[in-house]
Structure formats: structure tokens, C-alpha cells
Amino acid sequence: MNKMVTRTGQVLLLATMLVLGSGFGQVKEKEVADFRLKSVDGRSISLKDYPEAKGFIIVFTCNHCPFAKLYPPRLNELNAKYKALGVPVIAISSTDTVVYEGDSYDKMVAKARDEHFNFPYLMDDMQTVARNFGAQKTPHAYVIWKENGRYVVKYNGAIDDNGAEPEKVTRRYVANAVDELLDGRRVNIPETKSIGCQINMRK
């Protein structure tokens, strides 16, 4: 009898461990909502406007931040490469324009024109999209993937590992994440620390 009780207890313990352990080491991926924001070309843009897209490179950036100013050429390169593969770049400014007048819509239009942006530059004037994503800095990059009608964050953080010296970049976090997803693989580095100016959220 005691042996039967002991064996039954061992079986129950093993089953419990298997259930508890089934989620061990799995990171819950964040889902983000679609949005519709005004672009510098006057259009209203939503993720649903890209029905053929596999995913997106979303970059929260702005005009005034010294760190953000380093990346427009690299964003152009990312969009030139990955848009054709179904993963376009979309840049969003969520800066408080009361505090930073240089991030006004008119100034955004001028910057996109002067620096020949080949990607949409959207104004998140109510900061709702930045809050939804949890964006903290400029630039703060996200790679999101379409899964069963949902938009799931697969990577967030820095664009690469050297803002000041692009020729010395050794880790292209965003590009690597997109390459892995296009190959059907799990993203090896799903999160890094974004380096840049803080996005000040209005209260």
C-alpha cells in the first residue's frame, strides 16, 4: 500500500513538474496595436495600408536628438533593402513639441525632404503609439511581425552597436533580427538597450 502511494505521488510530482516546466524559459512576446498617423507627405498611414508586408521596422526618432541625427542614412539603407522583402521601415516622432519646437510637423517635413527620407515619417502628436509600444528613447527600434492578424514585437532596442561611427558597427541588431525572421528562425537577440534622448511623456 505504501509503495503504491509512493509511486502515485512520484507520478503526480512528475506531471506537475512537466506542466510547470512547459513554459520555463519562454519569453512572452508583446503584441502592439495598429495605428493611424499623419505622415510628412500629408497622408494618413496605418499598418493595414501594407497588406503584403510580413512585418515592419518601426523606429521612434525625432529631429532634435543628437543620437537620432546619426541614423537617417542607415534608416534609408534598411528601407531600401528590406521594403522589397516585405519589411518596410516606418519612423515615428512622439516628441513633446511644446518642449521641443524643433520637432514640429513643419520641421519634420523639412527634415525628411532635406535628408531624402525614403520611408514614411509620422507624427505621434498624442504620444499614444509611443505609449503602446513602450518606446523610451530616440532612436528606439522595434521589429514587429504579422502573426494571424496580430502585430508581435520580435525585437526592440538599439538599431546597431555604434551610433557615432557607422563604419565600426559590428552588431546590426535590427538587420540581424529581420534576417532571422525572414529565414524562419527565432531572433537570437530579442532585446538590447536603446541609446539616445529620453521621450518625455506628457501627463
From TrEMBL:
GO MF term set: antioxidant activity; oxidoreductase activity
All residue ranges annotated as the Thioredoxin domain in the record: 26-179
Recorded superkingdom: Bacteria
Name of the protein: Thioredoxin family protein
Lineage, highest ranks first: Bacteria, Pseudomonadati, Bacteroidota, Chitinophagia, Chitinophagales
